[in-house]
Design a protein that fits this description.
Distance between the termini: 62 Å
Structural class: alpha/beta
Order of helices and strands: HHHHEHEHEHEHEHEHEEH
Strand order of the largest sheet: 3-2-4-1-5-6-7-8
Largest sheet: 8 strands, mixed
């Protein structure tokens, strides 16, 4: 029994040593960036994969600090991919849906985008809300619609959406606020899924909180995969530890990023995601998304 206990101790010691060595498997010039990415919220295995691929592909010997930093920025930029904000084509109407879990700020985000479009004075806009589960949500959007002088339709069931779109037939854009859902309950019987499938000329935004933990983020993206074609908006980045979820989301889905928000002010606290600012924040050069 003593021999078996000693063998077990030896195995634990060997495992511990192996684990320590594995955490330092990269040259120190790269290891510090892996740690930096993790500290900024990039999931451990994702950060490790990024640095491992870079280490296997590029010889960093005799490269100065600036060159190594730029190489890492180029690699991260590739992962982020194209940023695609709202696109409006003249000549036909586009219906824009904002979907996502509860509490991520869909209504406020819609209001920010609507306000910016109103300030541009280019488009004829209508608003629809399907979030009749919360009286406060309807009242909130009514308040915004009054301030922006935009018509609002309230939809209670699937057939109402067709009536509302008929009412808005002369609009260039129709922005649709949807009810927040427990992402684990999203399925093909959901009213939002049915509406999305019944409308052709649409654009869909999955709204996610930048402060969401990785396990929950992964679960949300997996459950919303039934939607398929959507763009991603990250909200509440001023509340997040870092911008790691921007990278995490791109590893979990190939869907493009679009906007970020970092506060409650309408229409100011929203902007098209700036890749350079995100990358600089991830490797420690600034704190993009945080109030000054």
């Amino acid at each position: 029994l003593n021999d078996e206990i000693q063998d077990l101790k030896n195995m634990i010691e060997e495992f511990s040593i192996s684990k320590v060595e594995k955490t330092n498997e990269f040259p120190k010039e790269l290891e510090k960036y892996k740690v930096q990415l993790i500290n900024k919220g990039v999931e451990y295995s994702t950060a490790t994969l990024i640095i491992r691929e870079l280490n296997e592909q590029i010889n960093i010997n005799n490269k100065d600090e600036e060159m190594i930093r730029n190489i890492i920025k180029y690699r991260l930029m590739e992962y982020i991919g194209d940023v695609r904000p709202l696109s409006v084509n003249s000549g036909y109407q586009k219906v824009v849906f904002f979907i996502g879990p509860t509490g991520v700020g869909k209504t406020t985000t819609l209001a920010k985008i609507a306000a910016q479009l109103v300030l541009e004075e280019k488009y004829n806009i209508g608003l629809i809300t399907t979030d009749t589960y919360r009286i406060a949500a309807v009242e909130q959007l009514k308040t915004y619609s009054n301030i922006l002088n935009l018509p609002l339709e309230v939809v209670y069931n699937e057939s109402d959406i067709y009536k509302s779109l008929t009412f808005f037939k002369d609009k260039d854009l129709v922005l649709v606020d949807t009810a927040g859902r427990n992402h684990r309950e999203i399925n093909k019987e959901d009213i939002v899924y049915k509406m999305l499938n019944s409308i052709n000329n649409k654009e869909v935004y999955l709204v996610l909180s930048g402060a969401t933990d990785y396990i929950t983020l992964k679960s949300i993206i997996e459950h919303y995969s039934i939607i398929g074609d959507y763009k991603i908006i990250f909200t509440k980045l001023d509340e997040a530890q870092g911008l790691g979820n921007v990278i995490n989301a791109k590893f979990l889905t190939k869907n493009p990023l679009s906007y970020i928000t970092m506060g409650q002010n309408v229409p100011d606290d929203i902007e098209i995601l700036d890749k350079d600012k995100v990358l600089n924040s991830l490797i420690g050069e600034n704190d993009y998304g945080r109030p000054s």
